[in-house]
Amino acid sequence: MSVTQSSPVAPIDDTSLTGFYRAMNVPERRTFWACASGWALDGMDFMIYPLVIGTIIKLWSVDAGTAGLAGTVTLLASALGGWGAGYLADRIGRVRTLQLTIVWFSFFSLVCAFAQNFEQLLVARALLGIGFGGEWAAGAVLMGETIRAQYRGRAVGSVQSGWAVGWGLAVLAQAALFSLLPPEQAWRAMFVIGALPALLVIYLRLYVKEPELAVEARAQAAASGDRPSILEIFKGPILRTTILASLVSTGCQGGYYAVTFWVPHFLTHERKLSIVGSTGYLAALIVGSFVGYLVGAWFADRYGRRSLFLTFSLGAMAIVLAYTQLPLSNALLWVLGFPLGFFASGYFSGMGAFLTELFPTRLRGSGQGFCYNFGRGIGALFPFLVGALSQSAGLANAICLFAVAAYLVFFLAAYALPETRGKVLHADA
Hints:
Elements: H1 19-22, H2 26-60, H3 64-92, H4 94-112, H5 118-146, H6 152-160, H7 162-180, H8 183-193, H9 200-207, H10 212-224, H11 238-260, H12 263-270, H13 279-302, H14 305-325, H15 330-346, H16 348-358, H17 364-379, H18 381-393, H19 395-416
Helix pairs in contact: 2-3, 2-5, 2-6, 2-7, 2-8, 2-9, 3-4, 3-5, 3-17, 3-18, 4-5, 4-8, 4-9, 5-16, 5-17, 6-13, 6-16, 7-8, 7-13, 11-16, 11-17, 11-18, 11-19, 13-14, 13-15, 14-15, 14-16, 14-19, 16-17, 18-19
C-alpha cells in the first residue's frame, strides 16, 4: 500500500476556480505570480525552437529527423537538470535553486541566437535544457509546499496555465519578427527574446521566501545528520510510487511533445500554410490549451488528480486521431485546434500537485524532480522519432502513432496510483 494513503486530508472549502486566490495571503500570492511568470517564460523559451524549426531546416539543409534531434536533446538534458535541481532543492532550498535555473536557461537561450551551424545550436539547446528542466522541478515543489492543501490543485494548475501564455508570446513574437525581418535574422531574434526570463530573478530575490515546511525539514535533517540520499526514492515502499509516477510523467509528456513540437511544421508543410497564415490555427490550439489548464486545475481539486488524468488522456487520444487521420477541411482543422489544445494540455494542471503529494517532504524535490523529468527524458525521444518516421509514414501518421501510444501509458499508470487530493503535508512525512 502506498504511504500516501494514510495522510490526513484537508476539507475542501471554496470549490470555485478562483477561490484559492481569494484565500491567499501575501507570501502565497507573491510565490504564485513568481512561479506563474517563470513557467510562462519557460514555455516561451521551449516553444521558440518548434516555431523556427522550418526555417532551420531550410537555411541549414537539415532533414526533419535531425532537426527533431535538437528537441530531443533539449528534453533529455532537461531530465538530468530536473533531477539534479530537485536534489539541490532538498539541499540548498527551493527558491535559491529556482533562481539558479532561470539564469541558466536564459543565458543559453541567448547563446542559441549566435549559433553558426546546427551542431552549435544542438549543444546550446542541450545546455539550455538543463536549466529548463530544473526550473519546473524547483518551482513545482515551491508552489506545492506554499499553498494550502484544499487549494493546491487549482493554484499549481493555474501556474501551469502560464505555459500557454508563454507559448502565445512565442507565437506573437514569431508573427511580428518574421514579418519585419528576413528569416535568417528573425529566428535569431526569437532566441534573443528567450533571454528575458533572467529579469524574473530580481523579483524572486526580493519577494519570494522559502516555504517554512522545507526550512523545517532541512533543519531536522541537519540536526539528525540524516541527509536525504539521491537514491532513496528507489528504496522500500517509495520505489513503487517512483516507478508508476515516472510512467505517468512519461505518458503525459510523450503525448504532449509528439503533438505540440510538430504541429507548427504540420500546418506549414502538409497543410501548405504560410508561417503568418498558420498563426490563427496555433492561436486556437493555444487558447484551448490555456482554457484546458484552468479547467484541469479546477477539475483536480473538485474530482481528484486521477480522475483528471483518466478523463483527459482519453479525450486527447480521441482528438489526436480526428486531427491527424480524418480528411478535414482547413476550417474544421482550425475548430479542432481548441479541443486538441484543451485535452493535450489540461492534465498537466494536476501533475505538480500530484507529485508533490506522492513523496515525503525530505525527498520531495528528489522524487518529484526525478519522476517528472524521467518522463520528460523518455518523452524527449518523441520529437526525433516522429520526425524520423514522418519521412516514410507521413507526419500526420507519425504524430498520431506516438501520441496515442503515450496517452495509453499515461492512462494505465494513473489508474494504478492512489488519489492524493487534499493531502496535508508535514515536515517529517
